[in-house]
Write a structure and sequence with these properties.
Elements: H1 4-13, E1 25-31, H2 45-62, H3 65-72, E2 75-85, E3 94-104, E4 109-117, E5 120-133, E6 136-137, H4 140-146, H5 158-167
Length: about 180
Amino acid sequence: MYPFVRLFKEMLVHRKASALPITGTHVSYHRCWPQDLDVFMEMNNGRILTILDLGRTVLAQRAGLLGALKTKGWGLTMAGNSVRYRKRIRPFVRFKLVSRTIGWDARFVYLEHAIWIDGECAVQALFRAAVTDKSGIVDPRHIIEAIGQDIASPPLPDWVQNWIDADSTRPWPPQLGCD
């Protein structure tokens, strides 16, 4: 089940946080609760993705994106991700989540999330997001304009561009692997 209580808490805690530019960084703190655990007594990888969603939602709120989505009738969807899990998140451990927009291209906005425990990175994720309307994907330049900012995308780092390039070689639809 989606952690609506956590989402409500995050929106409440950060309701008076200063606005962020689209390239700003949002920092939040969380704890691994028993309902987050898998059979190995560590935070479930799916729950980690949901926690990243919480950071992304508040980042979107602070950058003015949620208001623009509502005003324009747009939707927001994740169009891909790549995650590195490097350290287990154990029960009751408190961790820091850092969320930021890396940049954008003609179709997608690229976001990075990192979970830190005592100064050590436990998880790092790259997400590709799309804002959509009835016609399909909204050009990110229109998104930036809708949130009242006038900024070009920072250059995408090589590791992000390499992921974009590699992902474009993946066949779609995928082959089933069975005949």
